[in-house]
Design goal:
Blueprint: H1 9-26, H2 52-72, H3 78-110, H4 116-121, H5 127-144, H6 147-167, H7 184-192, H8 213-230, H9 237-259, H10 271-294, H11 302-308, H12 311-325, E1 329-331, E2 337-339, H13 340-348, H14 355-379
Antiparallel strand pairs: 1-2
Helix pairs in contact: 1-2, 1-10, 1-11, 1-12, 1-14, 2-5, 2-8, 2-10, 3-5, 3-12, 5-8, 6-8, 8-10, 9-10
């Protein structure tokens, strides 16, 4: 999204690892056959898959600190930087909206229906949309606020969200709760977005909904605070690593303690989840920074750096590709029709593996396939900036 002027190879590596993992879990061969660590928690709790999105938003925060620090130091450039951030955020939102509306428009054209019907049922929020919104707000906070104010804002966001979710009675329910369809965030999504524009798999709530965007901003601010520390010139590398580890472990412990009262939950993006995931991200970056940037072990980093420098590009293409390929309908021997990608999976994977392994091998193939494209772009120094 933004290219740090003072680049950390470990940050590119960590970002690439996160995006590759995101594509892996988002593209199984069959949603009915997935290994448990590659699935989201049913509701409360946290699997490795539940850490991927907050890791990415946290990394966005670190990148903001690296990319915009020079602008922050020069008040004359504040307005220009904020306008640029808003443009980038809007583009990210529109890319996410395009992925949501694309298939619906094509289906409407094929079925000779009004294209307007696609807009009546399109999901308004999603992963890229959330990244865009969080990026805009977090960038403005970073440019305009001091580090102490950013830290205070981070704490206030977590506290306010906790209070809203655990003390405000939900209209129509009469009491505060954290259940799927009756919590305050779900009520707000249904009231503002309406069920026609929420997540298709639920219809009654959205995992990237309106209210839960508030603590998602907190995740990005956590990353910004880490990025500010990592840029300091007056601190040596061992101290930076020790501080990162300490911060990460402290945040994880606090998150686990808060989980006892405000459960760790990705769909609600609870305050305990912000601390827990942000703490693990801090520990992950500390480890990567020490091995790669401090100790100089860099040979193994290329595959994930390749993913990291074109992260948004590959995420968008990975979401677009199956939508396009499955528009090509093939007729099966029994006369039914299926998409090209589905047919390829059923022909080349399911006959040779057990259902769950076929699904995993397909996802790995998907990641490797995009690696070929990204490696070509990397060698040609093609970096597509949003």
């Amino acid at each position: 999204m933004t290219e740090p002027k003072q680049r950390l190879l470990s940050l590119d590596f960590f970002r690439g690892l996160t995006v590759a993992a995101m594509i892996l879990v988002n593209n199984p061969g069959s949603w009915g056959h997935i290994y448990a660590p590659l699935e989201h928690a049913e509701w409360n709790g946290c699997t490795p898959t539940d850490l991927i999105f907050p890791f990415f938003l946290w990394i966005v925060g670190v990148s903001i600190a690296f990319a915009m620090s020079s602008s922050k130091a020069d008040p004359a450039t504040h307005q220009k930087t904020i306008i640029k951030a808003i443009k980038r955020g809007v583009i990210l939102y529109l890319l996410g909206f395009f992925l949501a509306i694309f298939g619906k428009i094509i289906s409407a054209i094929i079925d000779d229906k009004s294209i307007w019907e696609a807009f009546q049922t399109v999901r308004l929020l999603g992963v890229l949309q959330r990244i865009g919104i969080v990026f805009i707000i977090s960038s403005i906070i970073f440019i305009k606020a001091s580090t102490k104010t950013i830290f205070r804002t981070f704490i206030v966001i977590l506290a306010i969200y906790w209070a809203l979710m655990t003390f405000i009675p939900v209209p129509g329910v009469g009491y505060p709760n954290l259940e799927k369809e009756t919590n305050l965030a779900a009520w707000i999504d249904r009231g503002i977005l309406t069920e026609a524009h929420t997540w298709a798999s639920s219809k009654t709530w959205d995992p990237e909904g309106i209210l839960s965007t508030l603590p998602a901003i907190g995740t990005c601010l956590f990353g910004i605070l880490v990025g500010v520390w990592m840029r300091r010139k007056d601190v040596d590398n061992p101290t930076k690593v020790a501080w990162l580890f300490t911060t990460g472990i402290t945040a994880v412990v606090l998150g686990l303690l808060w989980d006892l009262q405000f459960p760790i939950n990705k769909a609600l993006w609870t305050s305990s989840y912000v601390l827990y995931a942000g703490g693990l991200a801090s520990i992950g970056l500390a480890l990567c920074y020490w091995i790669i940037d401090v100790q100089g072990y860099k040979k193994f980093t290329t595959p994930f750096v390749v993913y990291g420098v074109n992260a948004i590009t590959v995420f968008f293409l990975a979401g677009l590709a199956p939508r396009v390929l499955n528009l090509i309908q093939l007729t099966k021997p029994d006369g039914t029709k299926t998409g090209l990608l589905v047919r390829f999976y059923e022909t080349c994977y399911t006959p040779f593996f057990s259902p769950i392994n076929a699904s995993l091998v397909w996802a790995i193939t998907y990641v490797l396939g995009f690696y070929v494209l990204l490696y070509f772009m990397y060698k040609k120094n093609i970096i597509i900036k949003v």
